[in-house]
Amino acid sequence: MRDSLLRVSAAFGVALLGLTLTSCSGSVSAKVGTPEFYWSAAVETYAAGDYMKATDHLDHLMESRNEYTARAVPWSLVLTSGMAAGYMELADAYTAGARLNHTNALALRRKATEYRNIASPLALRFAQNVDKLDILPPGAVPLAFSLPKGSAAVPPLIARIAGGMRLTPAEEETAQSQAIERAVLLTSCLAAGAPNDIARTAEVLGHATALTARPTFAGAMSQMLDIEASLYGRDKLDDPAKLAILHQRAQNLLHSLGSAMVVQAQTSTH
After folding, report:
1. Calpha distance 57→38 (Å, rounded)
2. Alpha carbons 268 and 247: distance in angstroms, whole number
3. What is each CA distance from 101 to 91, 105, 165, 171, in whole angstroms?
4. pLDDT in tens, 171-184
5. Which of 10, 18, 164, 168 could join 97 via S-S bond, C-beta 3.0 to 4.6 A?
6. In the 8-state DSSP scheme, what is residue 124?
7. Are the C-beta atoms of residues 23 and 31 closer than 8 Å to each other?
8. Within a domain: residue 128?
9. Residue 195 has pLDDT above 80, yes or no
10. Burial 20-51 (b: 16+ CB within 10 A, else e)
11. Would residue 26 count as lying in a domain?
């Protein structure tokens, strides 16, 4: 009996160890805390539509250089800037609704402020990590993620909010998900060099080694920085310092890209 119990215990220990060495996807063995683990976890949570968790996993891959860093940086930038843009769109819709629905104007403006406060740390996270583009190898930028969910069309629920109509809590949650999906999708299109073109973006991202030209990606990220700088305008969160920082980072990104292209051109002529 004692030997049987020991064998069962040993078997259980081996099974438990196997679980700890298996990533979230269940298909790729990876020790918890390793780059392989975080990459697999990012892929799974992204596929499930949990972009916030996917971004958290990608952050681990950007803490130090590893085989996934070059793929994690562009993906993280697209997700953080896209999510921030989605929350900003929601906030703008509630602000527009408050102008039309005077009875519930205060509640609608509070929702707008709530979503802007959610967007802010994402926008700042994006602005901070955009510097990590410098650690990418020269040449095209990898887009190692599948086409995001969602539609390019403005969701009907967002239109209802902007029209001053009240939504149920369930509808508000759906509207939030749809706004985030749409914004991440459109940001992906921009990063792929196909603004608002879902079909073309799907074609680009459909390749096993999807790439986008570095000037295209840098230009897209600069544009997103300028867009998200407006979050700190006087009529929104009113933070001139942060507004200036995001605008400056957008300009720095374009300037560094231009300098790199000049050096590359000079090198190719020698």
Report:
1. 5
2. 32
3. 15, 6, 7, 18
4. 999 999 999 999 99
5. 164
6. H
7. no
8. yes
9. yes
10. eebbbbeeeebeeeebbbbbbbbbbbbeeeeb
11. no
pTM: 0.85
> What is the pLDDT, as a whole number, of residue 2?
39
State the SS3 of 195-212.
CCCHHHHHHHHCCCCCEE
For residue 73, what pLDDT is reported?
Answer: 98
Place of tokens 């090198």: 267
Among 122, 142, 146, 147, residue whose Cα is nearest residue 68: 142
In a domain, 255, yes or no: no
Number of H helices and number of E strands within the chain? Answer: 10, 2
Tokens at 35, concatenated: 């780059």
> Which residues, including other chains, have CB under 8 Å from residue 26's CB and lie 6 or more apart?
none
Token pair of 161 as six digits: 């909010």
Distance of CA 233 to the CA centre of its chain: 22
Q: What range defines the domain where residue 64 resides?
A: 34-213
Q: Are 46 and 145 in contact (CB under 8 A)?
A: yes
- Kindly report which listed range (5-9, 67-71, 125-129, 133-137) carries the lowest average pLDDT score: 5-9
Residue among 65, 216, 32, 209 at smallest CA distance from 132: 65
- Residue that wins the pLDDT comparison between 160 and 6: 160
Q: How far is the first Cα of the chain from the last one, in angstroms, to the nearest whole number?
A: 79
Tokens standing for residue 142: 């990898």
Contact of 126 with 77, CB cutoff 8 Å: yes
Q: If residue 218 lies in a helix (H) or strand (E), which one and from where to where?
A: helix 214-229
How many domains, the chain?
1
Spatial distance between the Cα atoms of 147 and 253, rounded to a whole number of angstroms = 25
The answer to whether 216 and 207 have CB atoms below 8 angstroms apart is no
